[in-house]
Structures are given as structure tokens and as C-alpha cells.
């Protein structure tokens, strides 16, 4: 197994750092999947407890100027490894004025991801910072649990408002109730609602726009005004919103109404 | 009798010094002399020592008179004031607001009781008085010939601060590795059990990033991180570069700041290089002091270090013993210790006899064999104060508490 990659562009480095910071805020350990064209960060909290499950994909060409990998075997040309997300984000914290960043898989008494940063300094000589982050290699038999999740067919898909606004709204609501109801329709309306015995608070967002739906059937039969709703745990939503550092162009929310057999 | 006064910005520096020393231990000695006011601290395992000496010109006014305490023996010339950090640290807590509000600060001793009085004269006519009782205790002191170290670096604090950021606060020890072409600060790889979970980090600098870079010996030393951070914060506050003096593993290292107005020295024990070393701070001191006492006691035992530099070290270390008889006043740094003075007579015998003692000697006596760097640029000046302390350092274990 081999992996070597290099980032020289400051903007790419910045973005990569922000991705790792976001992951560090979401979960303690994360899985990194390395394949010839992509880098994936995978978090798989158990869905039953309402945890955040995340699949993050980075096209390696967009980030790395050099990228070489050799997977476990020729048929399975991938590497899955597990690391503590905070270790990675802390190691990348020192990349403010970096000239280049090199990542490689090494074995120093135990498997490590070595991050080597060359920093610009005021004098002519450059500073070299090295971090060896301990990792565990995930054996092939567990790879099936880490496959890309399929996004289930949803009734409604809607573009979210500015995440910062949404976050401050949800932040205020978390003190009142543990569960938040998200309602969305095909008209670009989104409601964030909490209901308690004493009070019911709703924040309305209008004219948000809807992305084109994958399945035509549902959109045809559906009344655009009809709201699809989901109940979620506020704390988990906040955890997700707090972690957002990557400034997405668009964030799409697709509430999936899961019907329980009666 | 001590009487000194400071303005707001001087109080801030004074407070920063106390905060830096609080990283060393929970006890602070206030040791005034005509050289200035020294704040000293030593940790319980005797593996770290800090001293900040404020010269009289640092203060707006400074007066130290010994007339009240004249006794027949020299030891009474000291104030012998030991304060708990818990009592003094909160007084100098919000330094930025102190700097803004305090117009004048007076520190003086009460003539009869064991009390230090700190008065802040603040804006709007507010006056704050703190009475801090102290324990009578001989100040401990460490003498370290930092000028005799083979490796000396001078670095801007901001640079070191950027390296410090790499390490987590859970990191207890760091390793410094130098060659004439390179300086590297890295996490210490002591406990192999912890390695699978912790990140190993290192940062290397080229020599041109330093204000002064002289390496006589390629070496790697490991020491406690906490005290380095304390010293670094202090030097950042007063914008003065830090000098690092060190030799080989096992020999203590010195971090020092030299300014016209004050001089700060932190002497830290380093992990010795023998295979039987353990990584806990306690044994850090043990192996370190044992090593030192071994070397001091007999030249032949120095072969343990196994480096080619040993003979050099021996000749340096045995020099102190020769210094005491006054005819050996050849070296500069020796000069300050051999200057003429009436009180020196007592010292040589006690020091020499200390080193001859068996392994049961308390740490204090072993520590007293290290030399302290020059306090002022005047090397030849009579320097009886620390020698007094050295001579009676063994007594400081018995804290005499006056009612």
C-alpha cells in the first residue's frame, strides 16, 4: 500500500484545511478512503441514534498537484484508513504560510499518515514541520459498511437559505425544545418549527428555489404547496450546521418521510 | 526592610514574572538585596528553578536596608520571605486592567511581623492594600554557569511561540535537537505506550532564524514543556529575546532573558541519556541530580555519559570546586564568586563537604553545587548574597514559621 500526495496551491490548501476542520467538528474518528481519482472522508454514526452520517468527496485533481496511490491489491485499488479527526485538523493548523504540503502513508513503528509542511519564513531558509498521525488500516472485510450511501428518493428537495442564518435560528430554538420539525415544499418554502406545550415557534423562509428532482413521478403528482416534514434532533442538526466551514455554493435539503409500518 | 514603588506598566511586567514563575511551582521567594528584588521559585521535585531579578533601576524607587535585621550571623541579612502562589497570584491577576488603572504600586515589608504589604494607588483616588503573610524560609538558589555551555542560542520569542503551537498541552516533555546547521523541536518519544494515540510533531529551523546560534556539540535534550511555555509568555510580554544555554542530556539547561532592567533565568533539568532512565518528572530530577552529583563527586564516574565531551565537562564542573579557594579566580564567571568579601570564608568548607557526602544527601545540597549566572554586568562585584544562601541552603527544608 502506498500513498503520496502534494498540495502547492494556497487556496487548495486552505480549502483542504477547512474540510478537515469541518470533519473534526462532526465526529471524533473518521474514515479516509483513498482511490485513484478521489479522496473520501466518511463518517458513519449509527443512524438509529440520529447521528450524523457523512460522505465527503474530494476530486483529487482539484486539490493535489501530485497524487500517487497503490491500493491493497490490483483488484481492490483502494485504501481505507481510520484516524482521529482532530489530529488531522490540528496538524493542518500550521499551514497558514505554507509553501507546500505533502501527505504520505508511512510506517514508523506503526502505520502513520505523515503530513510534512514547508513553511515560508522571513529569512531565506524555510521551516519544515512534520506531523506523524497514527492511523489504523481498515481491513477489506469491513469495506462494505463504508460504501457510498445512496440518497433515498425524497418527496421534496429544496435549496437551503444561508447556513449562517439558519444556524442562528436553530441555535435559539434549541433551548426550547429537543426536536425540530423541518417542512419544505416544491414552491421554495421552508419552515423550521418547534412545538411545545406552551409555545409553538415557526420561522418561514420563502423563495428558496428547488433543485430539479431526480424522479419525475413524484413531482408530477405532488401539490407544490404541500409540505413534506421531518422531525429531527436539534442538537444533531446544530452539530452539522456548526461544522460547516466550507461555504457551499448550494446546500440541498431533502426531507425523506419514512413511513413506519403500522 | 524593603520599600519599592512601580508605575502601571512596571506592575504589568512584575505580574507577568510572577505568572511565569507560577508555572514552576506553588511557592515564591521574595529575595531583596542591594542588587535588586529577586523572585525565585523551585518545583518540588527540584527539576526546575526560576528566578527573575529586577534591578533597582527597574523600579521608580527601590530601597533595601538591612539595618533592622542585623544579627551576628549572615543569614539574617535575607528577608527570608516565602509566599504561596495562591496568595500572590490573584493580586496580580488582570494585568491589562492593572496597567490601565494603577498609577502607583508600593511594595514594602512590615518591620515587626512577617508581612509584605502591596498597595495599589488607582485612578479615581482608589487605594487597594493587600497584606500578605509570609513564611520565614531561606531562599533556595541555583548557580549555573550558563556562559560555559557549549551550545547557546538566542531566539525571538515569537518564533518559538510558533513552534510551541504544534504541541498539545498534554505533551509533557519536548526534545530539542541541534546540529550546527539545524535546530529541531520535536515531541518527546518517551512512553512507547502512548505513541499509538498521539501525534508526533517536529519543527525545524535554519540557523539564520536565530539572533545568535552557536553550537559546539550536536545534541538532543529533553525537558519539561510547561516551564518553557511560562518563560516564553514572559519574554513575549516584555519583547526581549530568549537565550537558551545547554550541553548534553543530563546536564541542566538554562533559558534566560537579559535586559537592562531585569534578568530572568529558568534552569531546567534535562533527561539523562543512560538506558535506565524513566520518563516521569520525579525521576527526571533523580537521574539528573544523581548524574550531577556523580560527576561532581568523582571524575572517574563521568564515563557513564559515554560522550567524548565528558572530559571537557568534568574540567568545567570541577572548576567550581577549585573556585572556592580564592587563588583560582582566573575565569570571568568565576570572578564573581571569588571576589573579595568577608563572608566567603564560611562557604568553601560547607560546599566541599556537601559534595563529599553519600547518596543520602538531600537534593538541595546537590543543587547548590550549580552556579548561577551573573546578575549584573559587573562580574567582579562582591556577591555574597547567593553564597549565604548556598551555605545554609540545607536549612531551608526546616521552615521557620513566625507567629
Report on this structure.
The complex is a heterodimer of chains A (262) and B (403). By secondary structure, chain A is of the alpha+beta class. Chain A is built from six helices and 16 strands. Chain A has helices spanning 10-26, 60-63, 85-92, 163-173, 216-221, 234-243, and strands at 2-7, 29-34, 38-44, 53-59, 66-70, 79-84, 98-108, 110-119, 127-134, 136-137, 158-159, 179-184, 190-195, 200-205, 228-233, 252-253. In chain A, the strands form four sheets. A five-stranded antiparallel sheet of chain A has the order 5-1-7-8-9. In chain A, a hairpin with a 3-residue loop joins strand 2 (29-34) and strand 3. Chain B is α+β, with helices and mostly antiparallel strands and 403 residues long. Among the domains of chain B are: 2-69 and 76-136, Box (Proliferating Cell Nuclear Antigen), CATH 3.70.10.10; 146-191 and 198-271, Proliferating Cell Nuclear Antigen (Box), CATH 3.70.10. In chain B, helix 1 (8-22) runs antiparallel to helix 5 (225-238) and helix 4 packs antiparallel against helix 5 (225-238). The longest helix of chain B has 17 residues, at 281-297. The two termini of chain B are 18 Å apart. Mean pLDDT of chain B is 69; it is low at 276-403. Chain A binds chain B through residues 84, 87, 90-91, 93-94, 108-110, 112, 121-134, and chain B through 162, 165-166, 168, 192, 195-209. Strand 9 (127-134) of chain A pairs antiparallel with strand 14 of chain B. Chain B: InterPro entries: DNA_clamp_sf, Rad9, Rad9/Ddc1.
Amino acid at each position: 500500500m502506498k500513498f503520496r500526495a502534494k498540495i502547492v496551491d494556497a487556496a487548495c490548501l486552505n480549502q483542504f484545511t477547512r474540510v478537515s476542520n469541518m470533519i473534526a467538528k462532526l465526529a471524533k474518528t473518521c474514515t479516509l478512503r483513498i482511490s485513484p481519482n478521489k479522496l473520501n472522508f466518511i463518517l458513519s454514526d449509527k443512524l438509529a441514534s440520529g447521528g450524523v452520517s457523512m460522505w465527503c468527496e474530494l476530486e483529487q485533481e482539484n486539490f493535489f498537484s501530485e497524487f500517487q496511490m497503490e491500493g491493497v491489491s490490483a483488484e481492490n485499488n483502494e485504501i481505507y484508513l481510520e484516524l482521529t479527526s482532530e489530529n488531522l485538523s490540528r496538524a493542518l493548523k500550521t499551514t497558514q504560510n505554507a509553501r507546500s504540503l505533502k501527505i504520505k502513508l508511512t510506517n514508523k513503528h506503526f502505520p502513520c499518515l505523515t503530513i510534512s509542511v514547508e513553511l515560508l519564513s522571513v529569512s531565506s531558509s524555510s521551516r519544515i514541520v512534520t506531523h506523524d498521525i497514527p492511523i489504523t488500516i481498515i481491513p477489506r472485510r469491513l469495506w462494505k459498511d463504508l460504501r457510498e450511501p445512496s440518497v433515498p428518493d425524497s418527496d421534496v428537495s429544496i435549496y437551503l437559505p444561508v447556513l449562517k442564518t439558519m444556524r442562528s435560528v436553530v441555535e435559539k430554538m434549541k433551548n426550547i425544545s429537543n426536536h425540530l420539525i423541518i417542512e419544505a415544499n416544491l414552491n421554495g418554502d421552508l419552515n423550521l418549527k418547534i412545538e411545545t406545550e406552551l409555545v409553538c415557534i415557526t420561522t418561514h423562509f420563502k423563495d428558496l428555489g428547488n433543485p430539479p428532482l431526480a424522479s419525475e413521478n413524484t413531482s408530477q403528482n405532488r401539490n407544490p404547496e404541500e409540505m413534506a416534514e421531518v422531525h429531527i434532533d436539534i442538537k444533531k442538526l446544530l452539530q452539522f450546521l456548526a461544522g460547516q466551514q466550507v461555504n457551499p455554493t448550494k446546500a440541498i435539503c431533502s426531507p425523506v418521510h419514512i413511513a413506519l409500518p403500522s | 526592610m524593603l520599600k519599592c514603588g512601580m508605575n502601571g506598566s512596571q506592575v504589568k511586567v512584575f505580574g507577568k514574572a510572577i505568572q511565569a514563575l507560577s508555572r514552576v511551582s506553588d511557592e515564591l521567594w521574595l529575595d531583596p538585596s542591594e542588587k535588586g528584588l529577586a523572585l525565585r521559585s523551585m518545583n518540588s521535585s527540584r527539576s526546575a528553578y526560576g528566578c527573575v531579578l529586577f534591578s533597582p533601576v527597574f523600579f521608580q524607587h527601590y530601597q533595601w536596608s538591612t539595618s533592622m535585621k542585623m544579627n551576628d550571623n549572615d543569614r539574617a541579612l535575607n528577608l527570608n520571605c516565602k509566599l504561596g502562589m495562591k496568595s500572590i497570584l490573584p493580586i496580580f491577576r488582570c494585568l491589562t486592567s492593572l496597567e490601565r488603572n494603577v498609577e502607583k504600586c508600593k511594595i514594602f515589608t512590615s518591620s515587626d511581623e512577617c508581612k509584605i504589604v502591596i498597595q495599589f494607588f488607582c485612578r479615581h483616588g482608589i487605594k487597594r492594600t493587600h497584606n500578605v503573610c509570609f513564611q520565614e524560609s531561606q531562599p533556595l538558589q541555583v548557580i549555573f554557569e550558563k556562559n560555559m555551555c557549549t551550545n547557546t542560542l538566542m531566539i525571538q520569542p515569537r518564533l518559538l511561540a510558533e513552534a510551541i503551537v504544534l504541541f498539545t498541552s498534554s505533551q509533557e516533555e519536548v526534545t530539542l535537537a541541534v546540529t550546527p546547521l539545524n535546530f529541531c523541536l520535536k515531541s518527546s518519544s518517551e512512553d512507547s505506550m502512548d505513541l499509538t494515540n498521539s501525534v508526533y510533531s517536529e519543527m525545524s529551523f535554519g540557523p539564520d532564524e536565530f539572533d545568535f546560534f552557536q553550537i559546539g556539540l550536536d545534541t538532543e535534550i529533553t525537558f519539561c514543556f510547561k516551564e518553557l511555555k511560562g518563560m516564553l509568555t514572559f519574554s513575549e510580554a516584555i519583547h526581549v529575546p530568549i537565550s537558551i544555554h545547554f550541553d548534553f542530556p543530563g546536564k541542566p539547561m538554562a533559558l534566560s532573558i537579559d535586559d537592562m532592567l531585569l534578568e530572568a533565568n529558568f534552569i531546567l533539568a534535562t533527561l539523562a541519556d543512560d538506558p535506565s532512565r524513566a520518563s516521569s518528572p520525579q525521576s527526571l530530577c533523580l537521574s539528573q541530580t544523581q548524574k550531577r552529583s556523580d560527576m561532581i563527586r568523582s571524575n572517574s564516574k563521568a564515563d557513564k555519559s559515554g560522550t567524548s565531551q565528558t572530559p571537557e565537562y568534568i574540567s568545567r564542573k570541577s572548576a567550581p570546586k577549585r573556585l572556592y579557594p580564592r587563588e583560582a579566580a582566573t575565569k570571568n564567571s568565576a570572578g564573581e564568586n571569588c571576589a573579595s568579601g568577608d563572608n566567603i570564608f564560611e562557604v568553601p568548607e560547607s560546599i566541599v563537604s556537601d559534595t563529599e557526602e553519600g547518596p543520602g544527601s538531600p537534593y538541595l545540597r546537590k543543587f547548590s553545587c550549580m552556579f548561577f549566572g551573573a546578575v549584573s554586568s559587573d562580574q567582579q562585584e562582591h556577591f555574597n548574597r547567593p553564597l549565604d544562601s548556598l551555605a545554609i541552603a540545607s536549612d531551608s527544608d526546616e521552615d521557620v514559621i513566625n507567629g
